């Protein structure tokens, strides 16, 4: 029996036994789902475990160190301010936009504790993108750092949106004097206030995470408290099950567990699997200001980091830096990847470079709160192209053909996921919700196949998206901005393989008759209208009408094949 099979059998046994991970069937929106019987009713109840960990360090950011108790105290103060000063009510939306700071984590706790819906916006978005997110969710309060405030200051002034400024420094925004309060002032004014008491049910909404899909503007994935908690508790169960399966070979730390936060908190993995899971595990979260592999090595040694999670690019660069370093990295026991597939050769190399650490991977979406499939230990080394087994007992996965029928083992079909962790739907988008959620099953848009042992493989995508360094990029989103350029007649955007980032963005552009533009001019036009990671790395001018398929749509497949053929030659 493979390690993954043993792991899933153990998790299933946990669900059938009395204990923290006991499961039962419960109806959610009219559909029977497997749920954790002893789960907290809401995230606010879970946050109280901070008081159990008390003065243990929780968040480390550069020279700042906050204990679990201090984080909870600040979250209580902010929650009191939101209720008393800003009159935020249950179900209202509070948006966040900042880089990875302790204030991000404290804000998430405060907002969800009072039954409001936390809306973390992509901190890499530019002005138009941020304004869209604020308008789409109907935010009643905006919590942001100085760079994000500067990008949308005009929009904020015209809308009169209440604003809490984080790490403002000496910057002043006279146009926002009526609406802007500093984080420090609020913390001082409400310090010592108890966490407000709000009745929050498991299926009340907790968060909206925006995800780029194949239909232009990002969609707000709406999750319940139960959905987020399901993921957190499932990962906690996995940790215990791994210890059981490994037996005498199980890793036992002689110090506090610590994880290195390298990816944005506005991603489902950063928020759920690194930040929130750390809270119940008593794990220290070490925040990197900016990704640099050499800095990561220094932090791993200094803070005795035991787990690392990053997109494949990061683990590759970490491995390369480690090979040239004499730092003590023996505390590192787990090197996880997500957002994109690691090249098979990287999996084997990681195992050799980090003798004490095991590489792991998995499969999940924003729409599943990161829960899906899991692969680790020797199974990952033997099947580096797989994403693992459906994570028992919370996740069921099936494959469907074009007509909606089940696909036999060994054949390809669209991956459908059923789980209590799945989103409730897309904010303000009933049609998109109807297409994605089908009687409790979530249509992922990914094409997969199972092998004879039950391991899942991702083989293709139905959705018109590019995954660059773990970031989803909607091709239509980029194309719509290209079409707004006065000199552009036609444009097609697609992704091509890249050794470092997984994929990069390519744009093929036909100028309007009589128009001439350079690549640098077009890039300058896109700058400020698109987040930097969305701007095409490669821009190709096409002198004539782009090729079409029979329906009249531009044939991206042909353009991509032509590009790749030329690259080879």
The overall pLDDT average reads 92
Query: If helices are DSSP runs of H or I spanning 4 or more residues, what is the number of helices?
Result: 19
Number of strands: 29
Sheet with most strands: strand arrangement: 4-3-13-12-14-15-16-17-18
Outline type: globular
- Gyration radius (Cα, Å) is 24 Å
In the predicted model, the low-confidence regions spanning at least 5 consecutive residues are: none
Properties at a glance:
alpha/beta; 569 residues; 35% helix; 19 helices; five-stranded parallel β-sheet; 29 strands
Topology:
Blueprint: H1 3-16, E1 23-28, E2 31-36, H2 43-47, H3 49-53, E3 57-61, E4 64-67, H4 68-84, E5 93-97, H5 102-113, E6 117-120, H6 127-137, E7 139-145, H7 146-151, H8 153-159, E8 163-166, E9 180-182, H9 183-190, E10 205-211, E11 219-224, H10 225-246, E12 258-261, H11 268-281, E13 284-287, H12 293-303, E14 307-310, H13 312-323, E15 334-337, H14 344-353, E16 358-363, E17 373-375, H15 377-382, E18 389-390, E19 396-400, E20 413-418, E21 425-426, H16 430-436, E22 437-438, E23 441-450, E24 456-461, E25 465-468, E26 471-474, H17 475-483, E27 488-498, E28 502-511, H18 519-526, E29 538-541, H19 556-568
Parallel strand pairs: 3-13, 5-6, 5-7, 7-8, 8-9, 12-13, 12-14, 14-15, 15-16, 28-29
Antiparallel strand pairs: 1-2, 3-4, 10-11, 11-21, 16-17, 17-18, 19-20, 20-23, 22-23, 23-24, 25-26, 27-28
Walkthrough of the structure:
- By secondary structure, this protein is an alpha/beta fold.
- The protein is 35% helix and 26% strand.
- A nine-stranded mixed sheet has the order 4-3-13-12-14-15-16-17-18, with helices on both faces.
- The model has no long low-confidence stretch (mean pLDDT 92).
